[in-house]
Design goal:
alpha/beta, about 30% helix, six-stranded mixed sheet, Uroporphyrinogen-III synthase, Rossmann fold, UROS/Hem4, 4pyrrol_syn_uPrphyn_synt_sf, uroporphyrinogen-III synthase activity, 4pyrrol_synth_uPrphyn_synth, elongated
Length: about 230
């Protein structure tokens, strides 16, 4: 039986996608996420989120946020990366002006369409530099607000897997920090997107990218290559 290691705990429905395909699964959280208190800006016109974790951390402090951030009926405009991030914002009453699959795409859109606006970028302590660097290069005003911390949770695995599922560059680094994980027969690293894949390629050439930036798409790609 083919086997898969997921570097993120999967939901029951996500696990079934693998089990129903006759693939055994081990899952764990390769990274830990901790929400941190943050000082709320007095006003926000445009907010940027590149992950669900940032949205959850933001909502966790909702009571201390100014009225312009309270969601439905507010004037704040949301810009985000990922369909799941967009859904989480909309479920909480926020208006999403633009969603892209990748941070690089969102950065380009902001430069092209919102050059004269100012932004608040709600993010974690480990985040890609694509959006901040692009905004700085084009002299677009923004304030970065750290709302959560990511820490690595390295774990040693004595057994071998046919594929490893990765959902962030941090997850790749966490798994690969335990060097013994890299001396077994080389598995396929299945990555959620190009940024994660770039990190994975530092450790192996056996990397494939999911068709969409969702957990389900990563699983589907793994099932396809292992059949």
């Amino acid at each position: 039986m083919k086997s898969v290691l997921s570097t993120k705990k999967l939901s029951p429905s996500q696990r079934e996608l693998l089990v129903n395909a006759g693939i055994s699964l081990v899952d764990y959280n390769a990274i830990n996420i901790e929400f941190v208190p943050f000082k709320a800006p007095n006003t926000v016109e445009n907010a940027i989120f590149t992950s669900q974790n940032a949205v959850k951390a933001y909502l966790n402090e909702k009571d201390q946020l100014p009225s312009t951030l309270e969601g439905e009926g507010s004037e704040v405009r949301m810009f985000c990366v990922g369909e799941k991030t967009k859904s989480l914002l909309e479920e909480n009453g926020f208006k999403v002006v633009k969603m892209t699959e990748y941070a690089s795409e969102l950065a380009s859109y902001l430069v092209e369409s919102h050059k004269n606006d100012s932004f608040h970028f709600f993010c974690g302590n480990i985040r890609s530099d694509e959006i901040p660097s692009k905004l700085k290069e084009n002299h677009i005003a923004f304030e970065e607000i750290e709302v959560y911390k990511t820490t690595l949770n390295p774990k040693k695995f004595a057994r071998q897997f046919d594929a490893i599922l990765f959902f962030s560059p941090s997850g790749v680094r966490s798994y690969c920090e335990e060097r013994s994980n890299l001396i077994n027969d080389e598995p396929t690293f299945v990555c959620i997107g190009t940024t994660t894949a770039s990190e994975a390629k530092k450790y192996t050439e056996n990397v494939v990218i999911a068709n969409a930036t969702t957990v389900e798409s990563v699983i589907a790609k793994a099932v396809k290559i292992l059949k």
